[in-house]
prephenate dehydrogenase (Methylomonas lenta), 582 residues
Amino acid sequence: MFKRLCIIGTGLIGGSIARAARAQGLCQEIVAFGREKNQPNLQLAKDLGVIDQFYTHISAALDHADLVIIATPVGSMQSIFELIKPYWSATALYSDAGSTKASVVSAIEAVFGHVPNNFVPAHPIAGAERSGVDASNAELFKNRRLIITPLNNTDPQAVEKLTRFWEQIGSSVSEMSVEHHDTVLAATSHLPHILAFALVGLLGRKDEQREIFKYAAGGFKDFTRIASSDPTMWLDICLANKQDIIPLIRQFKAELSNIEQLLVDDQSQQLFDTFTYARNARQRFLDTLDD
Amino acid sequence: MFKRLCIIGTGLIGGSIARAARAQGLCQEIVAFGREKNQPNLQLAKDLGVIDQFYTHISAALDHADLVIIATPVGSMQSIFELIKPYWSATALYSDAGSTKASVVSAIEAVFGHVPNNFVPAHPIAGAERSGVDASNAELFKNRRLIITPLNNTDPQAVEKLTRFWEQIGSSVSEMSVEHHDTVLAATSHLPHILAFALVGLLGRKDEQREIFKYAAGGFKDFTRIASSDPTMWLDICLANKQDIIPLIRQFKAELSNIEQLLVDDQSQQLFDTFTYARNARQRFLDTLDD
């Protein structure tokens, strides 16, 4: 059990971690740090009972905290590490919830010159198109995956403590390398988000958009759900992982060009094979979920 | 009330029309026509109580039918019209459930030399990634949209009768031109299906596909749901509406190229604006659903 959990970034993810930790009795006290301008949001988190207290001074927020989780958009992590650095405690456990891992590791390296061995990079795979602490809930991570990407020097005890924390709030914890994490997530999450943003943006600019949207079926609603995700968060993710995302965009365009050419040439059999291959691949995906 | 509803193509859509019509008491008898090789499926439909009887001879199936609905993949419609032609009744109402309308109109024109005034082209917008009569249900069209695309010579009374039929099984009926229907559906349905097929196909061919699928979150599942759709049906739709789909694929690739270039150039503000525009467009779409 932790004495004091300090959440930095009390949005959907940070708020849900706090709620889940409290629901499972994993810490005695939950505090949050935020900048002055975020005071209304922090007050809301306190009013909702998500956190016990909040501070706009980092030293007060970190005081006696033995678990610190940074749940801000990945683009602001470096400035957070700069704020924390003077108060870094060798006995506390530090982690994050960033959707990209190489950028987070670079950010902490840029500030410390190395990655402290009590910082454990982590990523809860629990997307939601809603954002903000009012959307947070204690069940968000239940039956979801949490990926830890330890470095060579990461303290195994710190990894173990963080693993236990996430398992207790219902997640299934895996470990992989930073690079592998970013490659896999570019495919399953980052590229699909870009496709959804691109599609809704394209259709939204058409003259007949009202009618297009009016006659869209449930499939379209599901398909575009992730286009309702937080633009700030996704801007950060896309820039942070562009080295993996850009090649995937190019591969996807080639895939589309292939289908386009098959259509132009009326290549029925090859189109049928393409669609069938995809349907079977999705079935393999569904089978994986059942494992 | 119709005396005898004849369904041609007893899959998800045809089966659901039959079930809904029976549930609402819209016809005295429901029969189906199918080819010899589809006998097991027709027997299943009969065993499930979806239809009262089935025939592998078109003349027997059409005998005394006063409502005939063709719910086969659009690519087979012309051969169906050829089968029906000798038994065409001036007093019956004929319609279809094809996802593309220009191709259906061309098919019937090719067979009859014109479009009979008692044929009313229609399209229930009720997608489902499942297929087959065992997936059919009486509620499939409830609160869904049904688009009728009448031609200049279509009998207004036939349109009215078909409208009433679909309204009674719970659909909200609209009318638009054949061309407009195909343009709108290319954007909301055909392109998204191609994107989903392309994405799952691309990822399914990657060496690390097992891991990619393992770490995919709920967003990916929703996003790719439509990639589980019936390949035969979608092959037909894509070929039937390629004149609308091909330009959309090109526009979508240009949209992706734009995002790709913004990423390459680290154009944060423009990326943020792109994602924000898309999120707002999706909100307009959701607002449309609430209307």
